[in-house]
């Protein structure tokens, strides 16, 4: 059986840290918590779970903090989490099993990461992250913001899922770090450009975001997953700037980087739907329904686009076209994913009443 060091970096996480640690502390052999300047009771809470609580001055560099936490680990493997992550009960069992059965030849294990759920408890978005790492490989984090692990060797793709429960609202911390790097003349990697553009978009700085995304897409080293996402984020910017032709071109540009994605097809469908081009919109939404949902995808996977959402939009399109049978069919398919959704129940009643009225 392997042994595991759990490493967390924290700052002002008093509201989330107990939930996180309660879900996992008894499954690991060592718990290391690195505090980067908490002013609430985070450190005191951490000390009730472990004596391995350390302090690290915050220098606007997430990779530096995570690498410092890793440096205190002494067990066979390192598992990392954030304070607003947790393991649900089925995943506690999976970690227990993984710990008992993992072949020591494995250098790193990747796991699904649920980024958000809706009011019905369904997953909204997820991705895959390298989560469990052989300590002897001395894997390092890179990047001041949106840091990543550079790994190599033998890989296991696990279904052990970490679930993220966001507690903090959006802040300008990440944007400030990037702006500081920019002011200091620090070079931006293509990855920096992508995430800088994302931060600018989230802060409604659309012209600046367009510039960052264009620089990213014009670079020679943009990762295809980020490139596809950058195209629809670029389209979002142009939508806000009321430049529909450039919005449409940005969405089509996503096909330059890989096969069709449901996220892009649905956005193209929405583009046509907003212009009352019902048949054109329906073709894009129909294509979205044919695309597979893969939990092995490393980029962020927006699950509604692969499940219920295109069927809801197809219900609208076919209703407007006058094809009530297909409208009803797609509303029923959407309801199979969201049986308690009141909007879908209202659609069902409306469609049934309309069909009955046509028969009389």
Automatic annotation (TrEMBL):
UniProt xrefs under Gene3D superfamilies: Spore Coat Polysaccharide Biosynthesis Protein SpsA, Chain A, Tetratricopeptide repeat domain
InterPro entries: Glyco_trans_2-like, Nucleotide-diphossugar_trans, TPR-like_helical_dom_sf
Pfam families: Glycos_transf_2
Signal peptide location: none
Positions of the Glycosyltransferase 2-like domain: 5-104
PANTHER family: GLYCOSYLTRANSFERASE, POLY-BETA-1,6-N-ACETYL-D-GLUCOSAMINE SYNTHASE
Protein name: Glycosyltransferase family 2 protein
Lineage: Bacteria, Bacillati, Bacillota, Bacilli, Bacillales
